[in-house]
Amino acid sequence: MARPREFDVEDAIGSAMDVFWENGYEGASLPELLSGMGLTRGSLYKAFADKKSLFMIVLDRYERDYVIPAVEMLSGTELPDGWDRVMAMFETIIREVRQGDRRGCLTCSTAAGPATQDSDIADAVHKTLGKLRKAFEAALKASRSHANLDTTAKRQMADMLTTQYVGMRVLVRSQAPVATLKRSVASLRLLA
């Protein structure tokens, strides 16, 4: 008879996300994961198979907890004008940095690192960034200042905003000065 799990799987995934977010996929050693998750090697392998499987679960959880709310904010109507939604999203980055959060974005950090040499990880990252790009496009469709842009131009601008977002999140992680990040956000106002 199998012994029941003696840990909460959701808590363990959340703890693993913290370790991966802080250290990246490559930098998160098995001992760090075990310590962060409070698990034994056997428990980790029994519950999650291996490091890559655990990371794929973590990427999915990160998308659910952090990316989907951003997508909903960009696509929603809480702020009626879509460009206000775009600016609010980028201003959130500055606010988080001022509050001491320099982790950046797990998806963006993964996109910028060697983990994406693995096709499964690359596919997960591109899928998540694709959702973000579509949300930028939805915001642009609801932007009064971009109403005259055709569909192709809005798609291109959504691509540019996604690139800007990934770049800013990587800069945050690299400890870029707040003034640099603020200038980056201010430059977006030129597009309004």
Question: What features would you describe in this structure?
Answer:
It is a single chain. This protein is mostly helical and 192 residues long. It contains 9 helices and no strands. Helix 1 (9-27) crosses helix 4, helix 5 packs antiparallel against helix 9 (178-188) and helix 7 crosses helix 8 (151-173). It is elongated. The termini are far apart. The model has no long low-confidence stretch (mean pLDDT 94).
Topology diagram in text:
Layout: H1 9-27, H2 30-37, H3 41-48, H4 51-75, H5 82-98, H6 106-111, H7 119-141, H8 151-173, H9 178-188
Helix pairs in contact: 1-2, 1-4, 4-5, 4-7, 5-7, 5-9, 7-8
Overall pLDDT confidence: 94
Largest sheet: none
Instruction: Detail the poorly predicted runs.
Output: none
Q: DSSP strand (E) fraction?
A: under 5%
Query: Could you spell the SSE succession in H and E letters?
Result: HHHHHHHHH
Distance between the termini: 64 Å
- Let me know the number of strands: 0
